[in-house]
Fold this sequence. Notes:
Layout: H1 17-28, H2 37-51, E1 55-62, E2 68-71, E3 76-78, H3 84-96, E4 105-107, E5 128-130, H4 131-140, H5 144-154, H6 156-166, H7 177-186, H8 197-205, H9 209-220, H10 232-240, E6 246-248, H11 249-260, H12 267-278, H13 287-290, E7 296-304, E8 307-316, E9 323-332, H14 337-353, H15 361-367
Antiparallel strand pairs: 1-2, 1-9, 3-6, 4-5, 7-8, 8-9
GO biological process, one term: beta-lactam antibiotic catabolic process
Keywords: Signal
Pfam families: Beta-lactamase2 (PF13354)
Amino acid sequence: MPRSPLPTSARFLPLPGLLLLCALATAATPQDAGLGWPERLLEELSRIDTDYPGEIGVFAKDLDSGLSISFRGEETWYLASGIKVPVAIAVLRGVERGEFTLDDRLRLEAYDYVDGAGETNRHPPGARLGVRFLLEQMVIHSDNSASDRLIRLVGIEAVNRVVEELAPGGFQPITPLADVRRHAYSQLHPAAFRLSGRDFLQLKQQRSDAARRATLARLLGVAPTELRPLSLGEAFEAYYATQLNSARLSAYGELLEALANGKALGAEGSAHLMGLMERVATGRKRIKAGLPTVAAFLHKTGTQRARFCDLGIVRTAGTDGDKRLIVAACTRGDSSLARSETALRLVGQAVWQSGALLPAPEELEVRR
């Protein structure tokens, strides 16, 4: 795909954490005293982007100083499962309003099933699963069926109200995860909007694009020749062009900032969601792999054909409160999971090498 123009914008840690971060930064960051962390980070992101076959986009913001950088962060990026954070906020707001509790159990219907990770699909139709369990599966394991069952609980309108309130104008419409597949496969045949959750499971089981096209034709009851002459990759690119389930990375940063500052949820709901995000099991080779071990990463990943994201809050514990840095990063244009995860790992590495996680110089002076 054509590469878009490169962008131009741009507390105390306890020992041994402070010493480790300082040592890492001293060893790895550019030794230009005239550059602050935003300039150093943008410079390194440009190098990562040049070496990556597709494109990267990154928005980062220090929540203490307010300093931020945007590397294609004002462009619209497909979020994939990144939309599950606003879903979780909508669910926890329902809990806060007393509409239901985390211990309430929801009946799983046949139309709730979507292909993907997690344990929800192991339960039969009619099973009753707790809201708490579904939230954990959705956030920690990126369970699509859990996500769609929770969306059915609160309504997709509530999810879209969350993003419009917390990041006005920054998000495109969010849809259920099953509709992602319907929109993508409808690029091959309009009858794909009739596909069921079980149909998606069958499609996912196919080992090649050719087998998936043949299965799609069979499920739709049409001849294979009636499918549009597009590859599955082209079909998904056409779907991405609709900009559904997409946002500016800077807008996603606004969403994360509201969550971190207790403006998206009350204290209990904020702690619950951020606790789940700290336990995320996906994306271990992405941004987190490039950060020092003293840094926690509260995040949500997104993964789809030629689209990969890692979006979260880096936190380092300090004697005067946490150092908090938002990092929202996505890739596009390269279908290789390995190359894309390497690029995101390098983004994480660039963040700490830039010095963004270190106390400000005046704080270090006071520390001495």
